[in-house]
Each structure stands twice: as C-alpha cells, then as structure tokens.
Amino acid sequence: MVKSGKISRVKKGANVVAELGIWSLDGMTTETIEHDCFEDDFKHYLFGIGDFGAISFSGNYDPDDTDGQVAVESAWKEKTLVTDLYFFIDNTSYWAADLTNDSSSGILITSYGAVTFEKSAVGKVAFSAKVTGQMVLV
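Now predict its structure.
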C-alpha cells in the first residue's frame, strides 16, 4: 500500500523529534568480493557484508526541543551509539535498529549541522547518521 509522507515522523525514544519534514534511509547495499585468478577471462565475485547505509533527516530548527533535536545533537557531541531513534513510515510502522538479531546495532549521528536562516524563512536544521549493524522495519 502506498504511504503518504504526511504521516511520517522521527522519534527519539518516546518523543517526536519536533519540526522535521524530511527523513531518508539512503539505501542498503551488499559489498562484492572479487575472487578470480590467473588465466580467468572474466572477474568472479562473491557477496560480502551488507551495509544498511546512511540516514538523513531535516526540518525546522527548534533549539527548545530538548527531548528531540537537542537529544540528537547531544548524541553527536558525545559520539553515542543511538539505539532508540525510530523513522516512522505511518502511524505504526517504523525503521529501527534491529537489537533482537544484532545487539550491537544502532545509529551513529555523523553530523549535526546545516543550521541555516534566511530573512524570509524559518531556520532549518539537518542531521546525518550512519547505520551500524542491522535495521528492521517494525
């Protein structure tokens, strides 16, 4: 079933990260490992390790959102593995670190920035993150 972005959101724990309007799970990939030898006419590959990729999320800047934007900023500053960041696709389903199948999974906030202000717009903020381990759609 097609989903409307209007009902999406990002939560840090039980709290909605305020004022966001975009989130993106940039794509999952599997590396390929070359395994050929002398006299082969073509390269041969095996599948290697998977990578759940990067996540970006952005929206209106709200420095008073202590349980959301400020908490994510703190995770970046403190270089903390985040295990309670949830990327909702509707009112009940969301992407999250798959702690059931890989207890070392989580999200590393790699950038807090692009805080921008224009004279005829509200302030904006953007976050980037890297998935470590697995994610799961709940």
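Residues 69-77 form the longest helix (9 residues).
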